[in-house]
Amino acid sequence: MVESNPFVLDSFDEDVQRRTKQFLVDGGVKVIDDTRLKEIEKGSDELIATLSDGATISAEKVLCALGRTANIDTLNLAVTEVVIEKGMIVVGEGGRTEVPNIFAIGDCTATMLLTPVAKAEGTAAVSAMFEESKVSIDYAWIPTAVFTHPEVAMIGLTEAAARSQLSRVNIKSKTFAPLKYAMADSALKAFIKLVVDATSGQILGVHMVGPRAADIVQGLTPALKKGLTIDELRDVIAVHPSTGEEMFCF
């Protein structure tokens, strides 16, 4: 795996990035980070990939995942006053562009490139078009996940983002083997990290690497939007044995 960034999973919390890389390495994946793919040549019976540092890798197949750009070239937006930044359509509340009667949602906009977000943006846009009760989207509390093995999930602020906004931040984290997997020959480890406002105790971010991380993290969303504190989290009697019970034991 060749990654152009210093760590895998750009935009995730740095501790999650480091642990995800380690899980990949432990699973037998060779990770080459902070490196770019320069070119690929076809040999007699293999592919030769040359990296930006001059090193070469031979492989049977190459999968390129280079990101996405908005497919807006055929929309003739140049004849409108719709604002484009970095190839994406700029929108305000309800998906409205700078032109009042033109709306945009989903992956052509500079919001969050996630399918459920696009569906929610569609609902908000229809609400704005027909002047019904306005539907707004709170982008601060949208969970996201990567379905690696084990899964990676997050919601809210990373530690770096929280420290850039607040003077006092507490970090609660732990690495553990979920009981369900603890007796296996190769115990699967999990990692949980909470970012907490040290003044109010409000939980600002939840980050997890482990089995069923996506379900566990998204299940906290309503409480986090309501201002869940670390003390309120500790007050929960959790299901045992489960991976998620560790979330309530800080």
Structure, described:
The protein is of the alpha+beta class and 250 residues long. Among the domains are: 65 residues, FAD/NAD(P)-binding domain (3-Layer(bba) Sandwich), CATH 3.50.50.60; 109 residues, FAD/NAD-linked reductase, C-terminal dimerisation domain (Enolase-like, domain 1), CATH 3.30.390.30. Helices cover 22% and strands 21% of the residues. Strands 6-7-10-9-8 form a 5-stranded antiparallel β-sheet. A 3-stranded antiparallel β-sheet has the order 1-2-3, with no helix packed on it. Strand 4 and strand 5 form a beta hairpin. The longest helix has 15 residues. The chain is flat and about 65 Å long. It starts with 13 loop residues before the first helix and ends in a 16-residue tail after the last helix. The mean pLDDT is 91.
Morphology call: flat
Strand order of the largest sheet: 6-7-10-9-8
Number of helices: 7
What is the CATH superfamily classification of the domain at 140-248?
Answer: FAD/NAD-linked reductase, C-terminal dimerisation domain
β-strand amount: 15-25%
CATH names the topology of the domain at 140-248 as Enolase-like, domain 1
Assign the CATH class of the domain at 140-248: Alpha Beta
CATH architecture group name of the domain at 140-248: 2-Layer Sandwich
Regions with pLDDT < 50 over 5+ consecutive residues? Answer: none
Helix content percent band? 10-25%
The helix/strand order is: HEEEEEHEEHEHEEHHH
Report, as a whole number of angstroms, the end-to-end distance. 34 Å
Mean pLDDT score: 91
Structural class: alpha+beta
Number of beta-strand segments: 10
The rounded Rg comes to: 22 Å
Largest sheet: 5 strands, antiparallel
